[in-house]
Amino acid sequence: IMHLLCRGRMKLLVASFTAIVLLTWLYLLAGNLENGRSLLLAPCLADTPAAHVLERTVLESRVREVEEENRQIRLQLSQTQGTAAQPPDGNQQWGASADTGPEDVENTAEEKNNHTECPRSPTVQKCELIHVACVCAGHNASRDVVTLVKSILFHRRNPLHFHFITDTVANRILSSLFQSWMVPSVHVSFYDADELKSEVSWIPNKHYSGIYGLMKLTLTKALPSDLSKVIVLDTDITFATDIAELWGIFRKFTDKQVIGLVENQSDWYLGNLWKNHKPWPALGRGFNTGVILLYLERLRRIGWEQMWRLTAERELMSMLSTSLADQDIFNAFIKQNPVLVHQLPCFWNVQLSDHTRSEQCYTEVSDLKVIHWNSPKKLRVKNKHVEFFRNLYLTFLEYDGNLLRRELFGCPTQASPESVQLQAALEELDEDDQCYDFRRERITVHRVHLYFLQYEYTPTGDDTDVTLVAQLSMDRLQMLEAICKHWEGPISLALYMSDAEAQQFLRYAQASEVLKNRKNVGYHIVYKEGQFYPVNLVRNVALKNVNTPYVFLADVDFLPMYGLYDYLRKSVVQLDMAHTKKALVVPAFETLRYRLSFPKSKAELLSMLDMGTLYTFRYHVWTKGHAPTNYAKWRTATTPYKVEWESDFEPYVVVRRDCPEYDQRFVGFGWNKVSHIMELDAQEYDLMVLPNAFMIHMPHAPSFDISKFRSSPSYRNCLSTLKDEFHQDLSRKYGSAALKYLTAQRNI
């Protein structure tokens, strides 16, 4: 009997154990199906349509097999089944609360193990439009945001719509940049930050970002009312993956969740950084707002604008000001409303400030998604892997933005009017034309980044101010400091550079005591593209971005005499340039010596001219270019005198800002200034030589373009063709008055 009882108990135990295993297996299977995963198939195959069909068939068959034999056992083991169906105590955190869906439990697991063996299937439709918002104010932030945009464009496979909340400076810079960048399937909208300042100006903020650091709170009001979702990014972000992956996380939000954020990776909100450290209230470690998923539609529905205001008003009664701008208010709001936040895996915002836990967010390079340089030290931050992060950032910083003008195949998009116009112009060109490359260059649209460095200008009250206008490339960079020492007035410089060279220039300017202390110099980058130097296009960029009534059209390898700025302002008044059409000629000289004791007066210059230390400009190479200045008369002149236009005359002149632009068909070497002076004459400008002004050309190696001109017959032939076409255009534009230019050309 005892033997039979033992055998009976053993059978019951085996049956009970089998039932527990089967029920636990079924429970886990059902849970994984809810999460879109399968225990029956290899995890990397589980998301294909065929796999789902096969999985369903196998599952149904297996369930039918076990259903009958376990029906009785389930009744006996209901308590055991209930226990098996509950997750162990302590596994639920606030981020996976009763209001949190199963996908959020998955997110919590992802944070602990930020590496997966399987590529994730895309959760965003092929041509779905992704919206990205940034607050951007000032020259430096406008420069930083370009690197962010490059990193997004590099990885993206979807159309993008950027929404920029900007001040006047950033609007001017970025609107010009994107208009000239012409990236397909990229839309850009701008919103005036000044109109939003009243929404947040009442909040005291100690953070270096100032009032603009609070602007993200206003996005439900600032952005279009029909925009339902947006990714919000700081300008110091670098993407290491396709932004569509981040956009896809919106689909994981529960019905109640409205904000997606990554946990703050420093101890700031724990309040233990120093004695008496009192941060704003936050949930646990708090959240970082460098990367935010905003469900705008839901935020508007719950009354976000009123809610954050009430939160800020309540906390400011004791905190008095914010320390981390909008981040403090977001965290205080979430502390009161934890069910509204969706916690993102921390690799979506790897925060590289000092003393963070960012190293816990990745185990391999492939784990990295978004890098956030949220320390004031930026690239100098301390981190074990900072060299890797820095190199990734520098890759995009110096990456050729022209390469990002690629089409998104299979995604139809409406071309901008500029793109349509450019395409039509290209189709009109004849590729068999021997001058095709010249004509192609004329219609090439170059990316332009205005005011690359900090720029400040205060207009003079007498409307006589003059800006020195010039263009240069990397090989003339050494002239900038000397020019700034000789000319104290405003300067507008257009620099023809690659993305990498622009960063070299930035480092050069920031290291120069002379340049970094001059705020009235506007540096405008025209990015390289094509085989020619588009010299007149570059000049026009500098000319069009002048803020004074008058311009001094110079070249960067000339040094103006000391005091020329003040002298020109007086001459503007003396010659009544405000009411007359005049071009004031500044006589040009040159030296062949790299070291020159610069003359401090006209008398000293004449002495050096007589001694052979100085020469009239190009007298031994191209006399015709400046002969009409009449240097013999200038030697003794004490008042301005008028000279007549002659063929090939190309003086350096002071004119009103509304003068004609340079003709952009002339690229490289030859006729780029000659054609401009010709048009000034056609518009009946009087050429007036200033008796007490001069400038001196400093020696330098020959440019690449002049070498091509001298060595290539086809180059010279095309230049001759362009001259003839320019004459014809001049005749059509100015009629019989322009015939003298054609006659003068034929008499050469």
Automatic annotation (TrEMBL):
Its main location: Golgi. It is a single-pass type II membrane protein. Gene3D superfamilies: Spore Coat Polysaccharide Biosynthesis Protein SpsA, Chain A. It catalyses: 3-O-{(1->[3)-alpha-D-Xyl-(1->3)-beta-D-GlcA-(1->](n)-4)-beta-D-Xyl-(1->4)-Rib-ol-P-Rib-ol-P-3-beta-D-GalNAc-(1->3)-beta-D-GlcNAc-(1->4)-O-6-P-alpha-D-Man}-L-Thr-[protein] + UDP-alpha-D-glucuronate = 3-O-{beta-D-GlcA-(1->[3)-alpha-D-Xyl-(1->3)-beta-D-GlcA-(1->](n)-4)-beta-D-Xyl-(1->4)-Rib-ol-P-Rib-ol-P-3-beta-D-GalNAc-(1->3)-beta-D-GlcNAc-(1->4)-O-6-P-alpha-D-Man}-L-Thr-[protein] + UDP + H(+); 3-O-{beta-D-GlcA-(1->[3)-alpha-D-Xyl-(1->3)-beta-D-GlcA-(1->](n)-4)-beta-D-Xyl-(1->4)-Rib-ol-P-Rib-ol-P-3-beta-D-GalNAc-(1->3)-beta-D-GlcNAc-(1->4)-O-6-P-alpha-D-Man}-L-Thr-[protein] + UDP-alpha-D-xylose = 3-O-{(1->[3)-alpha-D-Xyl-(1->3)-beta-D-GlcA-(1->](n+1)-4)-beta-D-Xyl-(1->4)-Rib-ol-P-Rib-ol-P-3-beta-D-GalNAc-(1->3)-beta-D-GlcNAc-(1->4)-O-6-P-alpha-D-Man}-L-Thr-[protein] + UDP + H(+); 3-O-[beta-D-GlcA-(1->3)-beta-D-Xyl-(1->4)-Rib-ol-P-Rib-ol-P-3-beta-D-GalNAc-(1->3)-beta-D-GlcNAc-(1->4)-(O-6-P-alpha-D-Man)]-Thr-[protein] + UDP-alpha-D-xylose = 3-O-[alpha-D-Xyl-(1->3)-beta-D-GlcA-(1->4)-beta-D-Xyl-(1->4)-Rib-ol-P-Rib-ol-P-3-beta-D-GalNAc-(1->3)-beta-D-GlcNAc-(1->4)-(O-6-P-alpha-D-Man)]-Thr-[protein] + UDP + H(+). Residues 109-118 have a biased composition (Basic and acidic residues). Pathway: Protein modification; protein glycosylation. PANTHER family: GLYCOSYLTRANSFERASE-RELATED, XYLOSYL- AND GLUCURONYLTRANSFERASE LARGE2. In the C-terminal section; belongs to the glycosyltransferase 49 family. Bifunctional glycosyltransferase with both alpha-1,3-xylosyltransferase and beta-1,3-glucuronyltransferase activities involved in the maturation of alpha-dystroglycan (DAG1) by glycosylation leading to DAG1 binding to laminin G-like domain-containing extracellular proteins with high affinity and in a phosphorylated-O-mannosyl trisaccharide dependent manner. Elongates the glucuronyl-beta-1,4-xylose-beta disaccharide primer structure by adding repeating units [-3-Xylose-alpha-1,3-GlcA-beta-1-] to produce a heteropolysaccharide. Supports the maturation of DAG1 more effectively than LARGE1. This is LARGE xylosyl- and glucuronyltransferase 2. It comes from Myripristis murdjan. The gene is LARGE2.
